[in-house]
């Protein structure tokens, strides 16, 4: 009995020990071997891979399993080839409490040194997916509880051969830790986890939070630092139309995710930090960056799938560096970053059910940007370097009809300040912007201005301030417009060849500027030009500079073709004000050269307009040479249609004539010693009919030394001057011109010159006629007639000489020459006859009668007595005289008639015999000439108003025979 008890007791003791021993043997020895064999066969047969294992250990009493040196490779893997997956050491601590907890419970799961080689093949499949058999159970996953899961010193090599660039990446080390995780329905909080990884280029990943599977949900914090843009681009290249190079970015934020909730999937994320730096953007296939982003920072970003919204507080882009080029064909270089593709153009817009997404960006700011702008569509190509560029906007959303506030500023080419502020509607690009531009050199925009090849823009800066209205797509009738002010300072336009200044001003202020399109119109309230300057120059070849410099301008080169249709731009300028201006005239065709300026030019031109009926009012004042020579210009005109209606007056007063010596010396043959010029010009045009009045006054003109000019006029200029001068020393001329502008041969100034020339020619070629046109009757004093042998003035002569005396009083510069030469030889016979008649009558008693009234017999007796007295003998009348009586007898005349004929013949013979006795000598003839000159002189000086020193007795000139008497021709000098 005792033995049986002992045997039973032995079995009670031994059997459990045997069972435990067998259990231990199975757990410690057999199970690892079985597991190795099963795993190896499974991997080989089911997965087609090869499995290598180091040690497998299992503690059947603590349910702790451990494996080392696990690796799965391709069957044909060569030595040294990396496995698909590998594990340096794995520890699984299973809890027996799983039996009563109803869940597979693990106190610890440790994976030390895990490795995976992940490859996305060219067809898009993942190689690691080959290690996961297809699931045959669609039910929920088993209930698993893991108290602590640790992945330490992990690594993964990832490559994507489905991408164009076939990128690859290595993450190592990787550490993952999970606590209190349960796959079944838990308390809704889930297990806490922490994932940290480092990339092969120094990238750092950090992810921590809570994770649950039922419900599938997670919330936590996610952060990545030092992520390389090149790596990201390699994985995203197909999704981007451009290339990204260089730079890094950091991101950090919180998220919340839950699937299968009553309201659908919950996904919310908040970014506390998202920024990138040093990112280069390139056109695909090119080596240089099209743009470089110094820094991009996104702050306060929030995403909500349930609310269907993406919002952010601020997006800041700093240090942008880019170049923008407009090519000759109008293409914009940066648009090459976004090439259009047929697939993109034809792809339908993606739509998602539910309400529309809401996007809102509180603020977008661009800071410290630099943009190099080149315009190759103009010649020469223009370049603008925008520096210190800042721009911002607020309230960016998907509502593209909502105006966005915009503010921007920049420095252009290191000098110009540009600021823009206002609102723009993104959908139409319509808006209103306040523009402020300061100090833009006009040379920077030279290519956009009309090109005059002979001119060179030396300097000038443009400024503008006002409101710019952008028309957008024009669907609402808007048009481009600008309302504001402008200014152009330091403007200087040179002649390219000589570098001579042509047009300039110190400052131009433009106020109340209003420009608008559709239709084009420009209205300016006022323009104030300070110290404007312009020069009209006659070149050495006698052409005018303006006609050459401003001839045939080439249009500004732009990519947009100029439209020739539509009305011309309507222009209106209310007030153009000039201050201290200069209008210069230079003549290089003269030797020496001539230069005269209208200086201190000031005043207003009001009401300038292209409207056909508009009339501008001109009121300008200035001076020539100095302030003592004022200039006035006044009247009305329309410079855009001057030939319709113009009424313009110009006056120039008290100009010193010696400044015109280059002209007087060349064309008049004399320098001007002194004198003043004043002129009044009046031009009236009515529908192309011109009436022009030129009132010219020369005061105290005196000629100086003669010149040796070969071009001087062949006229006695000094005489013409004396004829034109009045007693005050003034030459007063009115030169009217009338004509039609439709006459192609009609030119005002050539006609004026011809009129003046005609006056001069008339004056010097017929001075008495010219004087007579001014003083009636004076023209008849040119000739003074005397009876033969007489110095007595007739009444007509006295009258004409009186008129001439008045003319001399009014023309004090004139001198008069009176011929006083010897009387005519023919006058000696007349004087002898007069003296003989006087001697005859002196011997006769009774009433005085003319000799011709005496009978022939009485005349014979008186002559015979004188003959006896003079010769002392009886006259011996030759037979010729007696023959005269016989001839008469032969003609059967009566006795009385024969007697009278004989007596007449005797009288004739006696007179011829006595006349030599009474003939005057040369001294007497000279005295007669002087007496006649004295008679003329006395008649001229009788009034006492003519200076005797101006009347000259010219003994070198004598009389001329005229109608039996003598005629004196007076001369004017």
Shape: rod-shaped
- Helix count equals 15
Q: What is the chains' assembly state?
A: single chain
First and last CA, distance: 192 Å
Radius of gyration from the alpha-carbon trace, in angstroms? 63 Å
The chain-level mean pLDDT equals 81
Main sheet specs: 37 strands, mixed
Class based on secondary structure composition and strand pairing = alpha+beta
Q: Low-confidence segments, ≥5 residues, pLDDT <50?
A: 556-565
Task: Assess the beta-strand content as a share of residues.
Answer: 35-45%
Based on DSSP secondary structure assignment, what is the total number of beta strands? Answer: 43
Give the structure's gist in a few sentences.
The chain has about 950 residues and is of the alpha+beta class. It starts with a helix and ends with a strand.
